[in-house]
Amino acid sequence: MKNFFALLGICFISALHAQQWQPLFNGKDLTGWKQLGGAAKYKVQNGEIVGTSVANTPNSFLVTEKDYGDFIFETDIKLDDTVNSGIQFRSLSTEDYMKGRVHGYQMEVDPSSRKWSGGVYDEARNGWLFPMELNEKSKIDFVTGKWYHYRVECIGTNIKTFINGKLMAQVVDNTTAKGFFALQVHQVKSEAEAGRDIHWKNIRIQTTNLKATPDDAATAVADFIPNYISPLEAKQGYKLLWDGKTTNGWRGAYKESFPAKGWEIKDGELHVLASSGAESQNGGDIVTTGEYSAFILQFDFKITDSANSGVKYFVTENEKNSGSAIGLEYQILDDLKHPDAKLGSIGNRTQASLYDLIPSIKHPNAKRNIGEWNRGMIIVYPDNRIEHWLNGIKVLEYQRGTPYYYALVARSKYEKWPNFGMAAKGHLLLQDHGNHVMFRSIKIKELK
Predict the structure, then answer these.
(1) Average pLDDT in the chain
(2) For residue range 367-401, what is the model confidence (pLDDT) as tens digits?
(3) Do the Cβ atoms of 227 and 441 come closer than 8 Å?
(4) Closest residue by Cα to residue 171 from 185, 181, 186, 156
(5) Residue 21, SS3 per DSSP
(6) Which residue stretches of 194-241 are H helix?
(7) Which ranges in 116-261 belong to alpha helices (H)?
(8) Domain 20-206 has what CATH class?
(9) Is 194 in a helix, a strand, or coil?
(10) Confidence of residue 412 (pLDDT cuts 50, 70, 90)
């Protein structure tokens, strides 16, 4: 019995040690840290790391000298004034990437009115992965002078962020598996913004026997692994509409089979090939074999210079028209170079607009350069409310079947089509407009 209790004690101590937090900051000096990027000032004061903004210098980062892969990280953070900051994790700095610029995942610290604290940003690389528009219920007013408890969980490809115990973001991504932590002092452009302090304390990490917080099926997940449904997305009811390899589930519009030309599958991407730039004159549009009524449709797309395309919904093929099949359209366009951007009315033919009906909001954080991947999303609720999203930001909303909707249709190119856009269900369509455009990660969740 004596040996049993001794063994039990050893097991308890071993388990406690295995799950023990390890400090990343000794509370006295900056041992284990180094500065990269800009010239903001970092010092240790009262057991805290204090970063101070400096005008006319790039983003500054105090980074750990050690890299970390899977972990649970926590720290407390306080702002003395309204200055933007962030906590980098799994981040890198290499000479072959923008001459050593710090890049990688960041948990946002944002005291502005947009309330994006806790969101996930990909610094100097892919931009916003999880803006807090995707989780409105968790937005917080970040009050200066108040401490906030930040937590990041990175286990495999799963990333979760928390503030004061509240889940903020859920991201799935495999871009970087290992890297350093960094405490950011964001660049400021005027002397009036200089001298503002950011405080960090209680910086600690777990790297063994990690136990992730359970997934939250009620919160959005941003999955950036191409053509992949994460376990959480599967629980939420998502499924792939395109498998990344074959033409299964798709056919040509007004056709029984997939087009013999004009489309190409390559490296997990579905390409609309360039032709004359005319509408549906090469391979033609493609549609899902299934029909859908209420749903969340997500899709990644990448356009080439001057390109035009679109994603249509509630396509019935009843019109038997020439050209592109008729349906409500999420516009895909090079707004700067394609002439269609200047047609229509008040920009209602620009990127992510409801084509020829409602213009999208031009949010600066939703913009991507030509040749970069965009993430589109269309939400159709059972009560006919519809939203268009671009790169995690809602850019328009409307409700079909209302007087306002019918008034918009009456002054559009669709006024000649009876009951336009009002079908109970319809196919989803990817448009061939004669320009090279790429799609991937096309997935859907049906709503009831």
Answers:
(1) 94
(2) 999 999 999 999 999 999 999 999 999 999 999 99
(3) yes
(4) 156
(5) coil
(6) 231-236
(7) 231-236
(8) mainly beta
(9) coil
(10) very high
